[in-house]
Amino acid sequence: MMTHYTPANSITGQIARRLRPFQNRREIAFTLDRPLVSISFDDFPISAIENGSDVMETHGWRGTFYTSAALERVSNHHGVHFSRGHLTGLQARGHEIAGHTLDHVDCTTLSQSQLINQIEQNKTLLRAMGVTQSLNGFAYPFGAANSDLKQVLSERFDAIRGIHDGVHRKKADLNELKACGIYSDTVGKIIARIQDLARRPAWLILFTHDICPSPSQWGCTPGEFDRILLALKTVNAQVLPVRDAVALLRGHYAQ
Ligand SMILES: [Zn+2]
Question: Helix or strand or coil: residue 80?
Fold first, then answer.
């Protein structure tokens, strides 16, 4: 049998990416009279707690942690990653722990059985580390998704986050939620977007990795993260984990 590989930057790949947001959607519709914002942390390094969620807690806010269990205590370009005590501590303080692939592999490179292994083993390991909450959320590693994946994962997760940039006005696709990366070079754009939420309320999902004085290209400094939180405070945003934001929106279905 002939196998076919489509490189990511081919014309067909580009067309597939453009069409994907319209395929296998799971839409919710809503109206908001106040900005709604979810802050998420991917993988995740310990600095996301110490300089991220710990600071959120001083405002009474909680976040979502998309966790790859195999990264436990691993040190890489994002710094040293979580250990089980971090997971149980976050859970006890009301944060959402959610799924990612076990080894942080790109879902689009996996067969369906490999994919299911990666997400189920990840859940099993997180449970073994003491996570007792539902684990009903998921984020595509590298934001890599396709129409088939959206279908398969929608049977296993309640809300799935991608990395397509944007905010959700009036509707959201729970199979591939849009999100904006908080990186040193995007902070200004995000703050402008938050200010715009005051005029036109919407649901904005943010994500980042390491938060430290010399962050990676996919992280930010503690000062930059604080500026984001201050902007959220200024527009009186409601800040909720993705799980809780979806629950809120389900109570606001547009007719
Ligand atoms: Zn990731």
Answer: strand
List 28's β-bridge partners, or say none.
172
Ligand 1 centroid–CA 213 distance in Å is: 21
Measured in Å, residue 207 CA sits from the centre of ligand 1 at 10
Residue 207 tokens, joined: 């994500």
Beta-bridged to residue 171, according to DSSP, are 29
Q: Which chain residues have CB less than 5 Å from ligand 1, an ion? A: 42-43, 141
Q: Give 2 Cα–ligand 1 centroid separation in angstroms.
A: 32
Distance 252 CA to ligand 1 centre (A): 30
12 CA to centre of ligand 1 in angstroms: 25
Segments forming the whole domain that contains residue 247: 28-251
Distance 143 CA to ligand 1 centre (A): 8
Q: What's the chain's length in residues?
A: 255
pLDDT of residue 24: 85
Q: In terms of Cα–Cα distance, which of 34, 5, 53 is closest to 222?
A: 53
**CATH number, domain with residue 210:** 3.20.20.370
Ligand 1 center to residue 104 CA distance, Å? 6
Q: pLDDT tens digits, residue range 184-236?
A: 999 999 999 999 999 999 999 999 999 999 999 999 999 999 999 999 999 99
| Counted domains in the chain | 1
Q: Is residue 154 part of a domain?
A: yes
The string of DSSP letters for 84-141 reads: HHHHHHHHHTTPEEEE--TT---GGGS-HHHHHHHHHHHHHHHHHTT--S---EEE-G
Residue environment code for 24-36, b if the CB has 16+ CB neighbours within 10 A, otherwise e: bbeebebebeebb
CA atoms of 36 and 108, how far apart (whole Å) = 30
